[in-house]
């Protein structure tokens, strides 16, 4: 604490001014006092009551303690003259030994139960009155219906092709009509598959994301995740390759033969017949890309052109 004797000091060092500490029992800089306090702050070891090996910062480490060198209690241990410290406003000790509070839902559930019991007492002979009481005062109004975007038909753009039972005249009237678009994949034009698939990718953000995460080809001049992901758009060879893609994953019929899917194992590029097929090649390395071209939860193939 500052005093006239401490203010009269004019000595300074490179780390700061020289001050008195502990009622003028120690003299040194703040850095030296901090180091001495970390070594124990006292000139003797309070465990073995000896100062034989205490050789550091002896000028800043005094013998004033609750217990002296002989193990006796000093004046600062008991009585009115004991050393007092201001309480810690942060309350760290009480927070360590105090159990955490219950979740707010516990109090909310107890309050709701009391409200229901009071409503039942008020309308003990009328269930309709009990319902009106709960709906008007106890229960909040129902929230608005949530309209979420479902991707169930993202890959399968059309529903399942169920046979339509129609009259013969209606069926004969449709004979000869050209099929411009695929029935199972409305985004695929049979006459111009290149342009139709390119329009589908650029017109739907979800299809574009599925295409980027399932694309196998890459023309990256530098091997990094960013160049892998944008190699088709950033390079001339990549744009030429993307423009030549005319097949769609949804339009392809899966070969469910056991000898092909299990024995030859074309999904791991072990089958020589399908090793170079871009449909079975794993997606390229890029950020957020999976190692497969199908949904691992629903086991449905993703929408991608190749």
Give descriptors for this structure:
306 residues, two-stranded antiparallel sheet, two-stranded antiparallel ribbon, 4 strands
- What percentage of the residues does DSSP assign to strands (E)? under 5%
User: Which value, in Å, is the CA radius of gyration?
Assistant: 41 Å
Low-confidence stretches: none
Please state the overall shape, judged from the principal axes of the Cα atoms.
Answer: elongated
Gap from first CA to last CA? 80 Å
Mean pLDDT across all amino acids: 77
Tell me the number of helical segments per DSSP (H or I, 4 or more residues long).
13
Give the helix/strand class.
Answer: mainly alpha
How many β-strand stretches? 4
Chart the SSEs and their pairings.
Elements: H1 4-7, E1 12-13, E2 16-17, E3 19-21, E4 26-28, H2 30-38, H3 92-97, H4 104-122, H5 127-138, H6 152-155, H7 168-173, H8 193-203, H9 205-214, H10 225-229, H11 231-234, H12 236-243, H13 258-264
Antiparallel strand pairs: 1-2, 3-4
Structure description:
The structure is a single chain. With 306 residues, the protein is mainly α. Among the domains are: 1-82, no CATH class; 180-306, no CATH class. The protein is built from 13 helices and 4 strands. It has helices spanning 4-7, 30-38, 92-97, 104-122, 127-138, 152-155, 168-173, 193-203, 205-214, 225-229, 231-234, 236-243, 258-264, and strands at 12-13, 16-17, 19-21, 26-28. The chain has a two-stranded antiparallel sheet. A hairpin with a 4-residue loop joins strand 3 and strand 4. Helix 4 packs antiparallel against helix 5 (127-138) and helix 8 (193-203) crosses helix 9. The radius of gyration is 41 Å and the shape is elongated. The protein starts with a helix and ends in a 42-residue tail after the last helix.
């Amino acid at each position: 604490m500052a005093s006239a004797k401490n203010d009269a000091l004019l000595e300074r060092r490179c780390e700061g001014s020289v001050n008195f500490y502990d009622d003028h029992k120690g003299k040194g800089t703040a850095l030296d006092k901090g180091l001495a306090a970390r070594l124990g702050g006292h000139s003797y070891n309070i465990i073995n009551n000896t100062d034989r090996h205490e050789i550091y910062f002896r000028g800043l480490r005094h013998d004033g303690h609750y217990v002296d060198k002989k193990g006796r209690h000093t004046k600062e241990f008991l009585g009115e003259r004991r050393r007092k410290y201001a309480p810690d406003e942060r309350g760290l000790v009480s927070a360590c030994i105090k159990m955490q509070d219950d979740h707010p839902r516990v109090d909310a559930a107890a309050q709701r139960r009391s409200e229901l019991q009071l409503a039942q007492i008020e309308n003990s002979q009328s269930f309709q009155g009990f319902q009106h009481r709960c709906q008007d005062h106890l229960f909040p109004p129902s929230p608005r219906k949530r309209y979420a975007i479902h991707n169930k038909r993202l890959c399968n753009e059309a529903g399942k092709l169920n046979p339509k039972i129609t009259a013969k005249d209606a069926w004969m009237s449709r004979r000869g009509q050209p099929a411009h678009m695929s029935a199972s994949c409305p985004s695929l034009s049979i006459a111009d598959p290149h342009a139709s698939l390119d329009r589908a990718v650029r017109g739907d953000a979800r299809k574009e994301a599925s295409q980027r995460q399932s694309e196998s080809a890459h023309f990256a001049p530098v091997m990094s995740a960013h160049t892998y992901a944008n190699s088709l758009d950033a390079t001339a060879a990549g744009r030429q390759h993307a423009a030549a893609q005319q097949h769609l994953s949804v339009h392809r019929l899966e070969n469910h033969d056991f000898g092909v899917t299990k024995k030859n194992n074309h999904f791991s590029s072990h089958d020589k017949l399908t090793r170079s097929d871009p449909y079975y090649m794993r997606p390229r390395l890029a950020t957020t890309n999976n190692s497969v071209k199908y949904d691992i939860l629903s086991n449905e193939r993703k929408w991608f052109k190749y």
